[in-house]
Amino acid sequence: MKLIIGIIITILGFNIGVFAQDNPNIIIIFTDDQGYQDVGVFGSPLISTPNLDNMAKEGIKFTDFYAASSVCSPSRAALLTGAYPPRVGVPKVLWPNLPGGLSNEETTIANMLKTKNYVTACIGKWHLGDQQQYLPTSQGFDRYYGIPFSNDMSVNPNAKISQKIVFREDMTLDSLKEKKWRGGKVPLMNQDEIVEYPVNQSNITKRYTEQAINFITKNKNENFFLYLAHSMPHVPLYASENFKGKSKRGLYGDAVEEIDWSVGEILNTLKQQGLDENTLIIFTSDNGPWTSKGEQGGSALPLRGQKHETFEGGFRVPMIAQWKGKIAPSTVTDEVASTIDILPTLAYLTSADLPKEKIDGKNIWPLLSGKSNKKSPYNKGGFYYYLDSRLEAVRKGDWKLRIVEDNVALYNLKNDISEQHNLASEHPKIVKKLKKMMTNFDEELDQNKRNQQHLRTK
Question: What CATH architecture is 383-454?
Fold first, then answer.
């Protein structure tokens, strides 16, 4: 009888999702400015990441995975909404105590999963607006604990303050409320209140991990979504005493190795709670490394470029996913995929409705599940590289066209991953075709932008 029902459902094409009766728990681990090379299985010669390496052994590694921006806020907006940043009104980095943020009219992954009765938590860096109406607790998350923007920023003197706030480094309520920029002295928030100022960043990765484990353990009998957005390894760099001075790559390596420890603690917790076979874990970075910071920054090798740029080093990031029993072990794919694909993929896996607003991402479960005959959805439509509101590049298949001002460059990424050889003059037809794709897509996006009142600059 079950077989007959299954055949009928397949024939009629009911959209019930592949695991509708037993939806997976979902964990997204999102690091900050971690370079393409800065994981063992992606070639790091000095940084030790045994837990991430084992995740790749137990799951899938994407070699051609892209953030949707090479800077913080736009990248996070894209991940959570499934759309390119200019479409949702967050093309630039957001700063403390300025109006605007990710509009509440957007549907985030958390909003979407709440319709399927998920318990949701954001732990770590937010960076999508620090006004009350833009904080995670107003964007579909039941729980928030973390730094509301980059860890090199300051504080919003108008933020809500807990009556039990802990002041450090001789700070007081009066100094918090001063309209004075104190770079690197950032607040820790619990829900929508500042509970520590400035936060002790030396143990922030450890505290994020403790909060994540508590959330998993508390909600082990519920479907949960955990968005763990580490503040590291963005500068200023910090690592706890157990990791400081231990990496061959200096303090940057210490910070990454502590994140790897955190991944291991979370995986161990899932196993101890009997949740590892019903939890999809995705690990990736928000953008490429800040290589101009020297030893304080990461590495994108063998890619060219860094954050703030539309070369591969700014956009292509490490990505590993694991789901025991659903993702085949030791799988590697070079098909193109992006953070904007995560929302529609989770909609498919949970049978949740997609947002009513237009999104750009595609369901990549066929790639995640390791089906060898499945190709990237971007082979036809192309993947687009926006810097702020400017469309500077497109990738279609192995070809990438990059146009910055009057400089036109065409690269074959299969043969030239480091973008060293401009082939534009040798392939004018390909240039013309890709340029037309860029023009058409940018015009469509410009006509269908929304929530543009949330555009802002420093």
Answer: 2-Layer Sandwich (3.30)
